[in-house]
Description:
Elements: E1 4-10, H1 15-23, H2 28-34, E2 36-39, H3 41-47, E3 54-59, E4 62-70, E5 79-81, H4 86-89, E6 105-113, H5 122-129
Parallel strand pairs: 1-5, 2-4
Antiparallel strand pairs: 1-6, 2-5, 3-4, 3-6
Amino acid sequence: MVDKLTLNMITQRSIEEGVAMEKGKTTQEYFEACSIIEMNEEDIRKLGLLPNQLVKVTSECGSVIVKAIKGRQTVYPGLGHIPQGVWANQIVPPRTQATGEPQYSGFPATVESARGERRKSALECVQGAVGLWRSD
């Protein structure tokens, strides 16, 4: 078992994210569809994670707390997938490599247990990213 694992991250659209987005980005359905990381079972086992345990995902530009789940489609060992959205945007590097779009896929990120932490809402993530979030 290891404390941290570096994965090759991809952030892409998912069916669940698309369906939930139509209902609204502040809905519980969108929260559950997008504040996750899909991982291979082998990687989940290496980290000693329990089913649906929260993890901290950290890239060169930020970190986010999400729920670790077994990949709903094929996710190879060493690969992690966070559906595109507010939570993925917390860790997507801003470089565009002359494409005009941020590097949504193919960047390293470390994953570790986040016991005692909680997932932030979409509003907390967006407002926190620009320094406007005021907790209750």
